[in-house]
Amino acid sequence: MEAIILAGGLGTRLRPVVPDLPKPLAPIRGRPFLEYLLDYWEAQGITRFILSVGYKHNAIRECLGTKYKSADVTYTVEPEPLGTGGGLLLSVEKLESNGPFLALNGDTFFAVDRNSLLKHHLESRADMTLSLVEVSEHNRFGEIRQDKEGWITSIETSPGNSKKPLVNGGVYIIARDLLNIYKDKASTKFSLEGELLPELFKNKKRVAGFLSKTTFIDIGSPQDYNRAAKVLSRHCGTL
Description:
By secondary structure, the protein is α/β, with parallel strands linked by helices. The chain contains 6 helices and 14 strands. The strands form 4 sheets. Strands 5-6-4-1-7-12-9-13 form an 8-stranded mixed β-sheet, with helices on both faces. A two-stranded antiparallel sheet has the order 2-3. A two-stranded antiparallel sheet has the order 8-14. Helix 3 crosses helix 5. The protein is globular.
């Protein structure tokens, strides 16, 4: 299975603590954060990674090269910042398989079981499946809203009534042909969560949710980055 990692962001919020590196290379316990992602997903059966890169992309290339353990690594370089949606569409063009693929946020570690996620995606006959995580309070993440059948209908920034809202954990399974109609946006800056997903909801695409109660950390802010070493330490013995 192939995976696209969205690693092209500028990481401006993290600059105060990681001023000289692209966010995916932020050091955690002496190792780049991106290595934790590749270690986990390579062990989950990913055989090829496509990294969507932009800001300081040469540093990421030098760190990872074209092979990571048993997995091949290739890159799509954004000519200018394209956002997560633009970076995803640019990278889709490099997929070699016609089957579903994995998409990952390059600043999020979410220990989802790939086989369970894929099984849920296929059995649901979904166009896209989002891995969901329960958080203890409303924060910067948008809250997932679902209909009675469990299909995701929106991602809301305003707090709902849930004491432990579900949010998008940044791990997706996507049907290969789902994004064909958006090819003309491959060189356009736009957001996966803020623009592409609402377009899919509007067009009544089957977007499923898969709840996973496992390790989750988003290093996008200094506060969460400073927690990352403790959170990831439970995986250090196996990665």
